[in-house]
């Protein structure tokens, strides 16, 4: 068994890996998750998807709990700035269990391959709140 270093400073952080479905990217995802990092990833491969079609990946933003709306507003406005679309991006983020379930339903109806909820709040409890919302 191979031993890997442990980095306590990573616990609770959020990471996004491009190309995380296979190979080295998948190993990055696995190792970051093992360190306690909330990991989101996408991957586009020429031979993946439905009958040779490109994969469709949907990545809705979310924050749940008492300060959900404030976390979404702060995170997305900080990231996008005032580009003219920020109000709509903030308004579409899931901030309650019902909206999370609506995202899953819409994802299924649209025939998407992957749905990756991207947290706007770095609190590790967000993973538990998302799991509860999906039950």
Describe this structure in words.
It is a single chain. With 135 residues, the chain is of the alpha/beta class. The protein has 2 domains: 11-46, no CATH class; 55-135, no CATH class. Helix content is 41%, strand content 13%. The protein has helices at 23-34, 68-80, 86-92, 97-110, 125-134, and strands at residues 14-18, 38-42, 57-58, 61-62, 114-115, 118-119. The strands form 3 sheets. It has a two-stranded parallel ribbon with strand order 1-2. It has a two-stranded parallel sheet with strand order 3-5. α1 (23-34) links the parallel β1 (14-18) and β2 (38-42). α2 (68-80) runs antiparallel to α3 (86-92). It is globular, with a radius of gyration of 16 Å. The protein starts with 13 loop residues before the first strand and ends with a helix.
Helicity range of the residues? 40-55%
The oligomeric state is single chain
- Overall radius of gyration: 16 Å
Overall pLDDT confidence: 81
| Ends distance | 35 Å
- Class by SSE composition: alpha/beta
Strand-residue proportion:
5-15%
Largest sheet: 2 strands, parallel
Spatial strand sequence of the major β-sheet: 1-2
Please tally the β strands and state the result. Answer: 6
Secondary-structure element pattern, one letter each: EHEEEHHHEEH
Number of separate structural domains: 2
| Helical run tally | 5
Quick synopsis:
With 135 residues, the protein is α/β, with parallel strands linked by helices. The chain has two domains: 11-46, no CATH class; 55-135, no CATH class.
What labels would you give this structure?
single chain, 135 residues, alpha/beta, 2 domains, globular
């Amino acid at each position: 068994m191979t031993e890997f270093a442990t980095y306590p400073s990573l616990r609770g952080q959020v990471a996004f890996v491009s190309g995380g479905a296979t190979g080295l990217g998948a190993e990055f995802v696995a190792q970051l998750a093992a360190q306690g990092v909330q990991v989101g990833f996408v991957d586009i491969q020429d031979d993946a998807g439905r009958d040779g079609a490109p994969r469709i990946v949907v990545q809705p933003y979310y924050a749940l709990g008492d300060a959900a709306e404030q976390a979404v507003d702060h995170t997305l406005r900080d990231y996008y700035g005032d580009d003219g679309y920020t109000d709509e991006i903030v308004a579409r983020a899931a901030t309650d269990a019902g909206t999370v379930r609506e995202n899953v339903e819409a994802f299924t109806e649209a025939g998407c391959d992957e749905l990756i909820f991207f947290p706007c709040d770095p609190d590790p409890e967000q993973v538990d709140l998302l799991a509860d919302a999906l039950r």
